[in-house]
Write a structure and sequence with these properties.
Number of strands: 8
Number of domains: 1
Keywords: Oxidoreductase
Structural class: alpha/beta
Strand order of the largest sheet: 3-2-1-4-5-6-7-8
Shape: globular
Number of helices: 10
CATH superfamily: NAD(P)-binding Rossmann-like Domain
Pfam family, one: adh_short
Organism: Rhodoglobus aureus
Strand content: 5-15%
Family: Belongs to the short-chain dehydrogenases/reductases (SDR) family.
Oligomer: single chain
InterPro entries: NAD(P)-bd_dom_sf (IPR036291), SDR_fam (IPR002347)
Length: about 325
Amino acid sequence: MNARSQWTESDIGDLTGTVAIVTGANSGLGFATARALLKAGAHVVMTTRSADKAAAAKNALVEELGDASIETMLLDLADLESIRRFSEEFHGKHSRLNLLINNAGIMMTDAQLTIDGFESQLGTNHLGHFALTGRLLDIITATPGARVVSLSSMAHRWGFMEFGNLMFQNGSYTPRAAYGRSKLANLLFTYELQRQFEAAGVDAMSVAAHPGTAGTGLADHMFDRWYLRPLKALVFLGIQTPKQGARPSLRAATDPKATGGDYFGPSGREEHRGAPVLVESNPASHSEVDAAKLWTESERLTGVNYESLRTPTK
């Protein structure tokens, strides 16, 4: 790893010829991640749920960066059909995928279901990216040195897996518990995908990152009530910018010394802020039993399987 404690975007090497997908790239961490990759010369596919937001994000980057290699595509991770359409469109345009940045997500929302009937936070943050990665698996495994970067959170420490009640079907839903579960699922997925890459002899890497505490707008809905609005200014005072919060993802995606299963986060106290470094996730995230159960259930729920990884290459 780079021995310097202050890794920044200037440590990203030349990414000319690299094809990257960044989910949720129209704002916040995704926008900052896409911007840094574009500045390093990558061709970046920015996914958003809205054509208007996609156009606005692209225009802002073109105005700032000039002749950057930007492509926008529609993708709703809470809709398996949208994921299928995106995959088909991407396959029609590209034959390689060097970086898949599974960045998009929702945070501590009220109880609701995705279009496919999944609890929305697990459905968007984990199952959507599980399905997306699986549908792009053939291109990922055909691209030497490809990386899948999954964005987790310090909130994974709140998470717990309950496979008989994965979607909080028994009325036990709370926004906090569901968010923690989805972020724990991101790490269980990351580590299991790396194990499967290794078992299959695939030249690809699965890594994870978390941004610490950053002002991205992800939690804006939590301050909708008028009496909470003054609190928002206090909560966001002094926390990291999206550019700073994106650095762990960018290091995970581009550090030449990163290895499969690495997890990057801020270096500061309790990992809230600071330069991106290797950090440790909790013991629950390393449970191979839970990872295997979640994998099987995710394949069943999404209808997307990773069967090609279960046949080792010769």
